[in-house]
Structures are given as structure tokens and as C-alpha cells.
Design goal:
By secondary structure, this protein is of the alpha/beta class. It has 8 helices and 13 strands. Strands 6-5-4-3-2-1-13 form a 7-stranded mixed beta sheet. Strand 10, helix 6 and strand 11 form a beta-alpha-beta unit. The protein is globular.
């Protein structure tokens, strides 16, 4: 009898432990799949918007013949407060060479924003950090931990970006938008209106513009600049219809599409490539 009682107690105890395990596992699964809080708008700062300067420091299109070209993208965003580097191209030597030619000291940059994981956009970061580690790097939260380890190993800081958020005064990120891969673009509230900077536009250039308009509750965008990721020709007129006043397509847009943008936008088309400086006054 005692043996039977002991076996019964053991069986009951095992059953309780299994039940606790199942409940714990189920709770963990529920927690894991609970959707994160979604930011549906960006509160733009009030008051007079600043003058903004955009400087292309890495691109496969060339404006300044003294600079080096390579497949990839990197642009400096100059605000009254600081310099922000958006993407780093694929090669730090080319990036740093072009910056030196343009009179831009790497140590003058406060923040680096990385759009997505592809090598032609992140390849120059490590070499840049060797020149200036006193920066904060804003990366999509979907990046692997090895990338974070690389940043911190050079003494720099990183910020994971998932939702839309403020990066600097008058500068915001769209947050991760699905491509694949996941990618973030920048929104700048300038003296002339909203500027959207897309590095490769894997989520689709039209989708990005629509998202920017939704996040900011604005009907018009003054300028869209960057890689448009080989969009169909029909997107040229669609961007017009979405209220995009000026375009500066580069990097992965494609020659034929750039030509169509030039025809459609005429004086509102800006030829963008390494060495180009756009001043928004």
C-alpha cells in the first residue's frame, strides 16, 4: 500500500510539473507573438524649419569627376545642429577619400544611420568607425548581433530602430519597412518642406512615399532623393500624383527610369551622384 501511495504521489507530482511547464510554455508563446506597439504618426517640430544641405559622398553615379565612384550609396545630411551620415557605401577607402576631397572631416559627424543590411550600404562603416568612433549608429532592429558587436568593439554606440522615431532636430526615421530586407528611410522637415532620403527603396519607392505622407499627415513632399530600386516607368507619374515636387534619383534607380524622371520633372529633376551638393534654403 505504501509503495502504491508513493507511486501515486510521484505521478501526481510529475503531472503537476508537466502542467506548469505547459502553462509556462504557452504563456511564453503568447508573449512572443504579441504585436509590438505601432507608431502611426510622427509629430513634426513646430516653428521655423531649417536650411538643410545634402552631400553625396558615395554613389555609382558621378557628378564630380575628381571623386571615386562605386556601387553603393552614402549621403551627408547637414543640419544647423550636426552632420549625419546616411549609409556608408561598400568601401571605406572610397568613402573616406571622397569625404576628404569634399573637405568633410569624419570626426565632424555625430550620427550614422544605416538603411539596411546589404554590403553596398554597410561596407564602409567599420573603416569609418576606425576614423571616428565617437558616433551613435542607428540600425534596423532586424540586424544580427554580430553587427552590434562590431560597432561596440570600435567604441561606438548603437540604437536599434523598429518604429518611426526622431533621429535629430527636424530629422526622423520611417522605422523598419518590409522589403525584403527590412529598410529604413529618413524624413527631414526642411525650410522648403519634407525631404525623403531613400538609400535603396527595397520596400518600393511609392510605398515609402505613401508611408511618409501617412506618418507626417502631409499631402506634399518637397524632395525625394536616393536609390529608387529600379521601379517601373509608371512610378514616375505616380510620384507626381502623390505630390512629390522634386526628385533626385541615384544609385539603384536605373538609367532608363532616371531619363523618364528627367523628362517628366524637367527643372524639378536633380541629377544626383557622388559630389552633388543640394542646398535647401
Amino acid at each position: 500500500m505504501r509503495l502504491i501511495d508513493m507511486n501515486s504521489k510521484i505521478s501526481i507530482l510529475i503531472g503537476i510539473l508537466i502542467l506548469i511547464g505547459i502553462v509556462t510554455w504557452f504563456s511564453f508563446q503568447i508573449e512572443k507573438v504579441t504585436p509590438p506597439k505601432i507608431t502611426t504618426s510622427i509629430e513634426l517640430e513646430k516653428g521655423e524649419n531649417p536650411e538643410i544641405t545634402l552631400i553625396s559622398v558615395y554613389d555609382n553615379y558621378q557628378i564630380d569627376p575628381e571623386l571615386k565612384t562605386a556601387w553603393g550609396f552614402a549621403t551627408i545630411i547637414k543640419t544647423p545642429k550636426e552632420l549625419i551620415l546616411f549609409d556608408t557605401g561598400g568601401d571605406s577607402e572610397i568613402l573616406l577619400f571622397n569625404m576628404e576631397k569634399l573637405g568633410i572631416n569624419p570626426k565632424s559627424i555625430n550620427k550614422v544611420v544605416i538603411s539596411h543590411i546589404h554590403g553596398d550600404h554597410v561596407g564602409g562603416l567599420e573603416g569609418f568607425l576606425e576614423e571616428n568612433s565617437n558616433v551613435t549608429v542607428f540600425i534596423p532592429s532586424s540586424f544580427p548581433n554580430s553587427f552590434r558587436d562590431m560597432i561596440t568593439s570600435h567604441g561606438a554606440k548603437f540604437v536599434d530602430v523598429s518604429d518611426p522615431r526622431k533621429i535629430s532636430d527636424f530629422v526622423y526615421t520611417t522605422g523598419e519597412l518590409y522589403g525584403p530586407p527590412k529598410e529604413q528611410s529618413l524624413i527631414i522637415n526642411s525650410k522648403r518642406g519634407l525631404i525623403t532620403v531613400t538609400c535603396c527603396a527595397h520596400p518600393g519607392i511609392v510605398n515609402i512615399v505613401k508611408e511618409v505622407k501617412k506618418l507626417t499627415n502631409r499631402n506634399e513632399i518637397y524632395l525625394v532623393v536616393g536609390g529608387f530600386h529600379h521601379p517601373p516607368i509608371s512610378y514616375v507619374k505616380e510620384l507626381r500624383e502623390l505630390g512629390v515636387k522634386k526628385v533626385a534619383p541615384s544609385h539603384c534607380t536605373g538609367d532608363l527610369v532616371r531619363e523618364e524622371f528627367a523628362k517628366e520633372y524637367k527643372e524639378d529633376f536633380i541629377e544626383y551622384g557622388v559630389g552633388k551638393i543640394i542646398e535647401i534654403k
